Protein 1
Amino acid sequence: MGKKVTVVGAGFYGSTTAQRLAEYDVFDTVVITDIVEGKPAGLALDLNQSRPIEGFETKVVGVTTGPNGEGYEAIEGSDVVVITAGLPRKPGMSRMDLLETNAKIVRQVSENVAKYAPNAVVIVVSNPLDEMTALAQLATQFPKNRVLGQAGMLDTARFSNFVAEALNVPVKSVKTLTLGSHGDTMVPVPSKSTVNGKPLREVMPDGQIEELVVKTRNGGAEVVALLKTGSAYYAPSAAAAKMAKAVAEDSGEVMPVCAWVDGEYGISGVYLGVEAQIGAEGVKRVVETDLDADELNSLKEAAEAVRSKQADVANM
Ligand code: PYR
């Protein structure tokens, strides 16, 4: 059977994700849903009309969903569901300021996903990311490996881009890593970062690395402050679409994602940004990497910071 992916939410993040997924041409069908009347159908029409130009065969279907799950039949048989539903930040807001509003939305969406696409792998991108991922798992009751969140790829891409710009080298020559939360306790990992295979610490002074670490942590807020309405979507959708593709192709690619951690790094019982091998079942395994003592400490602090908030969402 052909592959099917659903993107819930037709804002900029959702629509750009749907576009990227369609243009990959690895899915038979991309379903995009929203509660706004007409918008997903209009986007689908427009995306399908780009098929002869871009040369992809994937069909895009746009569906408006109702408050009692009306329309959700369209997601039946989805291999992957990307949940983008929820409000984005406004300038000056932290992702955590969205907690209660987005928890209601993500819970309702997740319950419908569980009902209509019970075998799907769920990729959550709604903010606050680590908490919404935990909530989607609770609300779907899917096995924890089948629910993951997108953030580490985005934060890693931001770090890599800042390093490439600072050194004026191709982005291809830069490898970085960012773990931890998609929030204040984000953990960029200089000890695992290289430029043309050389350790970042050998090609950039510590002070400059620290500046880029801080810039990476503020990467999303910097975009929000400039856009004034809405948050980033080009880099976030590139990351979410890559994850969905890895699931569809059962690629086994190792990516930084928000995954359930069960003993790795001495941390247990929490959704946290770590590297994981991604495939048809979602997270095949969490991949533990050597961190220096400070980085490991920061990762453990991140785990404790998100743990209490993830406990709160159970009642939201
Ligand atoms: C970000 O741009 O970081 C988001 O969380 C969307």
Protein 2
Amino acid sequence: GGPASLSRFRGALVAAVLGDCVGGEFEGAEEVPMERVLQHLNSLDDETKGTGNLDYSDDTAMARCVVRSILAHAGYDERDMAHRFAKEYGESPDRGYGTGVVHVLKKLSSSHLSDVYQPARDQFNGRGSFGNGGAMRAAPFALAFPKLADVRRFARLGAMLTHSCSLGYNGAVLQALAVHLSLQGALDLPQQFISRLITEMEDVESDDMSRKDARILKEAEKPFCDRLHRVRDLMDRSKVSIEEVISELGNGIAALHSVPTAIFCVLHCLEPRECLPENYGGLERTIAYSLALGGDTDTIACMAGAIAGAHYGIEAIPQSWINCCEGAEDADVTAERLHALYHQSPQGG
Ligand code: R7I
Ligand code: MG
Ligand code: MG
């Protein structure tokens, strides 16, 4: 479909759930041979396994809170979103949450909290978390707000409810911007896509807090820009090994070591690749490639899925894969409501 078509909204939200559900199988594995990935994905075609048998994790659980909160308020409401995160955690605490963030979620359940951003600030000796938990649930911000400035602003605030370190919330901003651009059809020109992300992140990472955090954590002056330049270098190469991707970009639980990686997965899989089946389309390639990296596979596949789904649209996702994933059907339904909100927005599309 054209820019911001319903198919793209559905693709983004459903493929994010898919990445989370199928990626759970390999989360934490050091290296995953492509053979095993393909075996796992082939098994999804086996209808005897029943429907919805792959559970979603915290990635989808929190994204669903973001979506529902935005829909309920036709915009961002910090108290409501924080409350939904806490309630969801209270009802299903075993979705695989990060070990740090559970403390925030417990504090957020208190109704006397005067500042809902405070529990996140108290994390890790007051520096806040740089985990990818803000980024993993950032896609819905791109699907709710048509204006880039709003996507930036609200993805950042929404992440800060649990991740107050700039390396955490800036990762969420980057992920939301990637989905925003993809939704507009920007992946038709991959070089421009990565250049625009770099230009935006130059600005995002120019504030005092980002510079200070980068210095303290001994990262490059603008850590996400640095990684995006590496993505561009890897894109330009005809052959790249999985080992190089992992060593250059990472596959870990920090936003810095996973958001640029997810973006690379999407870019790398725009074209057919030798290591991937010929009958796979781009969306299938992206999911398979993300899993083969190992590490934080559910989250990297979830984020890559959102970006790729916004590009290829819902038609690119095999129905048999959708059938296996808990919450995929629900994501499809809510995508339609986000699409309506996005297009009714007074600022226009
Ligand atoms: O970021 P977060 O919500 O975790 C998301 C990940 C995804 O992969 C999910 O699929 C799920 O598996 O978890 O949770 P946090 O607890 O905020 O951060 C995750 C981890 O990153 C922490 O448990 C720490 O190990 C690490 N981490 C830090 N370590 C040292 N110093 C995050 N911030 C810091 C830090 O400042
Ligand atoms: Mg998870
Ligand atoms: Mg994960």
